[in-house]
Design brief:
Elements (H helix, E strand, L loop, with lengths): L12 H8 L7 H13 L3 H21 L4 E5 L9 H8 L4 E6 L2 H5 L1 H4 L7 E6 L5 H8 L10 E5 L11 H10 L6 E7 L6 H12 L10 H5 L6 E2 L5 E2 L21 E7 L2
Parallel strand pairs: 1-2, 1-4, 2-3, 4-5
Antiparallel strand pairs: 5-8, 6-8, 7-8
Organism: [Kitasatospora] papulosa
GO molecular function, one term: methyltransferase activity
InterPro entries: SAM-dependent_MTases_sf (IPR029063), SAM_dep_MeTrfase_SAV2177_type (IPR006764)
């Protein structure tokens, strides 16, 4: 039985993502939508794994650039290796704060907060649009006068323009010190037939979920005022593949998402 504060009447993106990855921390309502979506588009679980692989590569790259602080918003249910494990494998003193709005993720926070003795970990239970709260609570672990790697992976496509997606990114990046980085992965309709993308959007909407799959130009807007680092905006599988192992089942598949990393001057 789910705890009282967990809404199992409709799917949640974090639990749906967990189901795609073969996890057990989801409910029948999540599995039902997941099965319908994968029946229509069987590649979706591979796409989820490709997104995670990008997250690992980008984190490894940031740590290699000397970033020692990370803020991961839209964390999702823990699936090893978690972001802090990747970062602390490069730099044991890395400090990481996770943020998600699903109580299921909170219930697994202990797994997220088991890091190295040299580092520090924190967790914020908040909606991504609660930027002031996120920044205030994250500041208990992170020093925002020093560079931070901000990760918004597989998150922003669940926020429409009307819900303030661009404002969220602007407020968060405004709080970052020069030398910080922004990492985003985002579903896009650009790599799929228009009718297929619309079908997936409709299936999410019918279950009370927003899914705004932005095209390349709308994705690029999230990086206004920042300096994109090479190789720029690409599909997830094309971004520094040398930094991580291939994703099982990836051959011939496409991530269906744009990714990019940008630096704040």
């Amino acid at each position: 039985m789910a705890p009282a504060d967990i809404d199992t009447s409709k799917p949640h993106p974090a639990r749906l993502y967990d189901w795609y990855l073969g996890g057990k921390d989801n409910y029948p309502v999540d599995e039902e939508l997941g099965r319908r979506l994968t029946a229509f588009a069987p590649v979706i679980p591979v796409m989820a794994r490709m997104n995670r692989a990008f997250t690992h590569r980008a984190t490894r790259w940031l740590a290699g650039q000397g970033i020692r602080q990370f803020l991961d918003i839209g964390t999702g249910i823990p699936t090893e290796p978690n972001l802090h494990q990747v970062a602390q494998a490069v730099s044991p003193d890395a400090r990481v704060v996770y943020c998600d709005n699903d109580p299921v993720v909170l219930s697994h926070a202990q797994a997220l907060l088991n890091g190295t003795p040299e580092g520090a970990l924190g967790y914020v239970q908040a909606d991504a649009r609660e930027t002031d709260r996120i920044l205030a609570e994250a500041a208990e672990v992170l020093d925002f006068d020093r560079p931070v790697g901000l990760s918004l992976n597989a998150l922003l496509h669940f926020l429409s323009d009307e819900m303030g997606a661009y404002a969220v990114v602007e407020r968060l990046t405004a709080a970052l010190a020069p030398g910080s980085y922004l990492v985003i992965s985002h579903l896009t309709p650009d790599f799929h037939p228009a009718e297929a993308s619309q079908k997936v959007r409709d299936m999410y909407r019918a279950n009370g979920l927003t899914l705004d799959m932005r095209d390349r130009d709308r994705f690029a807007r999230f990086f206004d005022g920042l300096d994109l680092v090479a190789p720029g905006i690409l599909a997830a599988e094309e971004w520094h593949p040398e930094l991580g192992e291939p994703v099982p089942g990836q051959e011939g598949a496409h991530s269906g998402e744009y990714v990019a990393v940008a630096r704040k001057a």
